[in-house]
Amino acid sequence: MSSANKNLSAHSDKNLIDISNKKIGIVYAEWNNEVTEKLYQGAYQSLIKHGAKPENIISKTVAGSFELSLGAQYLAQRQDIDAVIALGCVIQGETRHFDFICQAVAQGITTVSLTYNKPVIFGVLTPDNQEQALDRAGGKHGNKGEEAAVTAVKMLGF
Ligand code: RBF
After folding, report:
1. Which of 130, 94, 127, 123 is nearest to 109 (CA)?
2. What is the pLDDT at residue 94?
3. Taking 90 as the threshold, does the pLDDT of residue 136 lie above it?
4. Pick the CATH number of 24-156 from 3.40.50.300, 3.40.50.720, 3.40.50.960, 2.40.128.20
5. Where are the domains of the chain?
6. Please, which of 15, 63, 74, 120 could form a disulfide with 113 given CB 3.0 to 4.6 Å?
7. Residue 157 Cβ < 6 Å to ligand 1
């Protein structure tokens, strides 16, 4: 499904709070690094724009999207961290790995969020190819990392 015309910048400012005293973890996958680095930069800059202090943004990487769940759990279990953003890019390949990884990380992120009762934001792209990925990592469909950060801010203001 295309994400054209669907981005959070078109949504309301409801629940957008000042996050200057919030600590936020970002975990992102090294796999498809050209894409995930852009998602990370989008998320990081968006948090700064919403008032986060650089020293209150804890950034970590994991090897691939499959490891995002555990990486997010390491961050979410910390009492000083208020919300976690998980970023990755799983590109549809010729094997069923795509389905297994996507299913695992979606379920894993949900579990971590509900277990620790904190926002754990799902910022994983699942495109058909690299071009579609780059379109959503600062290209013509915006930056989904940035949108993940806005979602985190909104959940903190819930
Ligand atoms: N990780 C990603 O973040 N994105 C991918 O597109 C991706 N594709 C993979 C394809 C195959 C065949 C394998 C074996 C792994 C892939 N991974 C990918 C890495 C995966 O998330 C994880 O790091 C490894 O499976 C080790 O647990």
Report:
1. 123
2. 75
3. yes
4. 3.40.50.960
5. 24-156
6. 120
7. no
Give 5 or 17, the one with higher predicted confidence. Answer: 17
- Give the closest residue (by CA) to ligand 1 atom 8: 90
Amino acid at 148: A
> What is the distance in A from the centroid of ligand 1 to the CA of 41?
22
**Ligand 1: which of 35, 98, 101, 122 to mutate, most ligand atoms within 8 Å of CB?**
101
Question: Is 141 one of the catalytic residues?
Answer: no
Atom number in ligand 1 closest to CA 30: 3
